[in-house]
Amino acid sequence: MTTNETADAAEPASDAPKRPRSGRATIYDIAELAGVNPSTVSRALSRPGRVSAKTEEKIRRAAAELNFRINPMARALPTGRTMTLAVVVADITNPVVFRTIRGAERAAASSNYTLVIAESQESGSAEASAIERLLPSVDGIVLATTRLAPEVIADIAGRVPLVAINSRPPGVSSVVTDAADAVSQLIGHLVALGHTSIGYVAGPPTSWSSAQRWEALLAESERHGLAVVEIPSGSPTIEGGHAAYRRVIASRVTAVVGFNDLIAIGIMQEAAAAGVRVPDELSVAGFDDIFGSELIVPALTTVRADLDRAGAQAVESLLAQIQDGRPREDAEPMPTELIVRGSTGPASARPL
Amino acid sequence: MTTNETADAAEPASDAPKRPRSGRATIYDIAELAGVNPSTVSRALSRPGRVSAKTEEKIRRAAAELNFRINPMARALPTGRTMTLAVVVADITNPVVFRTIRGAERAAASSNYTLVIAESQESGSAEASAIERLLPSVDGIVLATTRLAPEVIADIAGRVPLVAINSRPPGVSSVVTDAADAVSQLIGHLVALGHTSIGYVAGPPTSWSSAQRWEALLAESERHGLAVVEIPSGSPTIEGGHAAYRRVIASRVTAVVGFNDLIAIGIMQEAAAAGVRVPDELSVAGFDDIFGSELIVPALTTVRADLDRAGAQAVESLLAQIQDGRPREDAEPMPTELIVRGSTGPASARPL
DNA sequence: CTGAAAGCGCTTACAG
DNA sequence: CTGAAAGCGCTTACAG
Hints:
2 copies of one chain form a homodimer.
Chain A: H1 2-10, H2 27-34, H3 38-46, H4 53-65, H5 72-79, E1 84-89, H6 95-110, E2 114-119, H7 124-134, E3 140-144, H8 150-157, E4 162-165, E5 173-175, H9 179-192, E6 197-201, H10 208-224, E7 227-231, H11 238-250, E8 255-258, H12 261-274, E9 283-287, E10 301-305, H13 307-324, E11 336-339
Parallel strand pairs in A: 1-2, 1-3, 3-4, 4-5, 6-7, 6-8, 8-9, 9-10
Antiparallel strand pairs in A: 10-11
Helix pairs in contact in A: 2-3, 2-4, 6-13, 9-10, 11-12
The first copy, chain A, binds a DNA duplex (16 and 16 nucleotides) through helix 3 and helix 5.
């Protein structure tokens, strides 16, 4: 009532046929202007070629004149296609995830899809409920988070097209980076420098990639006859690195690899605070090559993956899945590249 | 056809009443189960209290049993409320903007709104068209970008609730940081160190905040009797800082302030490459206190603003505007805080 | 308080 | 090729 009155008051004082409340032109307006049936307008606009050339032309002209924009909500109702995708992440602030988001956003936009982003900061249950909330309004989901159990993810994937980034839930499409190769490059570098005992500061216990990297490290340790040790971090952040530092030192390793650059940076900061020189007394390396890795002194040795591309690839795979109605064959793990910088150096016994 | 057959094939082989294609329960299912009219279900679910307690209870029970989730698209059609907000940014990668996005996302989520993000990397026209595309599917827009002319923004604001971040288009709601105070703090610090000639490396020519900061700097220069010079950067990035470096040196200033930390970092990198010591020969400062400012050596003196809060505040203001139907009174400019670190020091003539 | 009806802006078989 | 009709899943005056 109130709403209507307000809307009416805002209308121009002409007695034009009733205008939609939004003030936007609809296919009915076009139909009237072009002298055709609304259904013809719909056809002309949504699948060109199904209508005679001259009618189509007339309709296009009318649409342009009325500055017509299709209403995606209205279209979504009969078709069930919302033309929007969701990406759910644990923490937008993490440099790794926003690169992924950017890649995803671009791929989505270039296919005329809209991207909504959901951050699930809190618990895994918050995450699940965010997904639940989004479900009816999206055509698919990119899951770039570590909080959900594989079975839960598989379950969601049963209800909506989904692709996971950096995890491989059973039966679910995913895009991952090549952990074995990444770790192999990094360890090769460290071994060449003479390191024989290496620490790995892990990411969250639920993180698939962290587990992968540790597994790869175990494999490398056998190959090279290394002593390796896994150290928990609490969280994949600078603070996580701080928290792990004492255990790193206590382990007497000569080199430490962080699950990600954030952790590695945290470790370097603690080392600096404790007067332990990097890399002379302790070599440090990470993964991701985030902004800041190059800035810190010494600059951080790390393994880079093309995260933008991972995000884009996830969206492309998702779109294909939406098209075909069934999950797409997973692509190869994405290649990685070792970036050697100043934080790693020759092994040398640290004075006790 | 194909679609329907597929859907049918997927259905359980019972002869249950026709299920909606989505497989989700609708209010009709609830109505049937609860033995009431669909309109009653709608009322019970959307505005509790308009229905007798016991019917409501029955309906809730049925809804829960069917695991009902309202379809936001379907609701949007009659109401015109999509429950989604858009935030449009120039570059997601910019640390400043993703902090803002995070704040916006949280505020939106806590009001049960969904946030879609649009990146407009390219030209201002790409930006305008992205907005155009989003317009029908959102209830409001947060504009955190620098590419659009104030009149264009004002025009868009006439068609959809909008609030701008870090610009003040005429007649448009906005949230901005307190440039005058920020610059005053920073210049006070530099003056105390003995600097009398200061360079300002600007952001994009279309950037309202960059202009604000420069204006404030001019005002400060009068107050303190300083020589100040504005230097263009091309872009608000590290590369922009690189590009501006020669002009900075050529200007013979003893201190330089970047429009943002990215530019300041770029300048520091060039200085390091050229063997110019910071801060001994050149003091450098920035704005934003991004991740990385603390990592670089020497750590960057900068002015911090609470960007998360800015994003959240923009969303709140937008929501109020959507409620009331008219723009909300702008809040005070947000306070800022000077963070003094190692990149600024006493003025000293640089050897030619 | 609740039911029956109309409508939001599209799409898509079904006829012709 | 195009029109007329029904329907997508909701909401909301209008009656009772």
